[in-house]
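pls read this stuff:
=====
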Amino acid sequence: MPTFLNPPTVHMPGGAYSHSALVPAGTELIFLSGQVGVRPDGSVPNSIAEQAEQVFANIGALLAAHGLDAGALVKFTMFVVAGQDIQAVRAARAKFVGAHRPASTAVYVSQLVEPAWKVEVEAVVAKPNG
């Protein structure tokens, strides 16, 4: 699985992430499309906290479909609508990944494609061959 590195020549991460991730040869990469807080029945919760929980539930379901768990995550890219509570997203992320520290980027955006969506997260996942 990936090796995560935070060298002493770079500042310590400002959150629950790693500065770099090395994926060994012979590993398959899986790219997860941006997941939003849409439930399987198509409904969208109102709060960013509920949407963030659903985002990570969706990511968990995709990982499970590949026989993986959160430990296979290499990198997240998180898009949060400006003015929304990013701490709610961080809390849902922390609950989902536990002590795992994938590389991560968080960006505020003015709006997502659907105005009801408040957060979107895409991910890169490593799956050992065989």
The CA atoms of residues 33 and 130 lie 24 Å apart. Residues 48-65 form the longest helix (18 residues). The mean pLDDT is 95. The first strand starts at residue 3 and ends at 5.
